[in-house]
């Protein structure tokens, strides 16, 4: 039944962030800590930040990691960890994670608990770029290869980062691991007018009126999150930068694919959503999803019939 409840009430309040991420680590840190305080004042259990929210994103917010101030990033991270303990709030923090030279850093999400401890770190597994690894994100970052799953208040959670929305296989793994809430951090913004115009032309201006956006990120990212929520029956918090020009605003999707909250694009703000995982929403694939995930590609029972096996007869 749509909207029905069982007796095991499992509630969590999520703050989904957006602010104008930049190359200025100090400024990013102030945004992060201020929003942590705002989230705490709203009784949020966890605050979810965009990709690269503390470090800024190489190739977009700054040119490269040459002469990057890693010491400043570390001290800013420690301040945020201390604030998580002081505010008693979980933090999913986007940043860069330095590796040993000459290896490139990871694009990462630090999972910080409400006691001010890093309980895990997720490193982006699919960075955008070509086979040569000398363009887009792979020019600046090294890919990770581990999934990240954890629990907040007994609720199973998972994380993914930006370009990984292109890989539905990742969400299936999280579903197999029992994820109920996904935190997907994006950095789809800080577009120059020239880049924005090029992206609009890539779509084709004659098709703008047929779509819910006029750039590929604005069209495909929210649509994919909607389908992933419904196909996998998970909540998805979608956090994005508001840096001008942002492709779309942060939002929250319910397990039936319904968007239940959305911020205004290009504005610094927080989206507060209270989730009750005991509520059962519409799930059209409940009966057969596990079968498909296990490689059995049909519903119901198969029949033995010659007319079924004959693929060219009428």
Describe this structure in words.
With 314 residues, this protein is of the alpha/beta class. The chain has a single domain, classed as Nitrilase/N-carbamoyl-D-aminoacid amidohydrolase (4-Layer Sandwich), CATH 3.60.110.10. The chain is built from seven helices and 14 strands. A six-stranded mixed beta sheet has the order 6-5-4-3-2-13, covered by helices on one side. The protein has a six-stranded mixed beta sheet with strand order 7-8-9-10-11-12, with helices on one face. A hairpin with a 5-residue loop joins strand 11 and strand 12. Helix 1 runs parallel beside helix 2. The longest helix is centred in the N-terminal third of the chain and has 18 residues. The N terminus is likely disordered.
What separation lies between the terminal Cα atoms? 40 Å
The CATH homologous superfamily is called: Carbon-nitrogen hydrolase
Order of helical and strand elements: EEHEHEEEEEHEHHEEEEEHH
Percent helix range: 25-40%
Overall pLDDT confidence:
96
Count every helix, treating DSSP H or I runs of 4 or more residues as helices: 7
Per the CATH scheme, the topology name is Nitrilase/N-carbamoyl-D-aminoacid amidohydrolase
Q: What is the number of strand segments?
A: 14
Query: What is the topology, as strand order, of the major beta sheet?
Result: 6-5-4-3-2-13
Give the number of domains.
Answer: 1
Q: How is the main sheet built?
A: 6 strands, mixed
CA-based gyration radius: 21 Å
Q: Which architecture per CATH?
A: 4-Layer Sandwich
Give start-end ranges of low-pLDDT stretches: 1-7
Task: Name the structural class.
Answer: alpha/beta
